[in-house]
Amino acid sequence: MEKIQAKRIPVVDHEQQFPRSPGEYMGPKCKFKTAAYLCIDGGEQPLAREVYFIPPGGKAGLCRVTEGHWTFKEEDDGSLTIRQKLTVSDKWNGFLKKGMWEEI
Questions:
Q1: Which domain holds residue 34?
Q2: pLDDT over threshold 90, residue 14
Q3: pTM (2 decimals)?
């Protein structure tokens, strides 16, 4: 398996900054209900944490995974591990482990 260093895009509150280049990822961050949502308790309600990424190699565009099927682990060094396999149709298959892409 080839390993490639991933680049993490910082999550900044109230800003939409997404990965733009192969090998970049952003998150996990909470997805929020926004348009036409009545806030009864005075705030927006988080739905689920998401990670956006562009697999290395430039064969696929922006992808998204959401907690539930995928499990996110924040590592001590500030990197991220997504424990389940990431499959992007026939373009890329692999894992993100401690901030390293591993293609299979």
A1: 3-103
A2: no
A3: 0.76
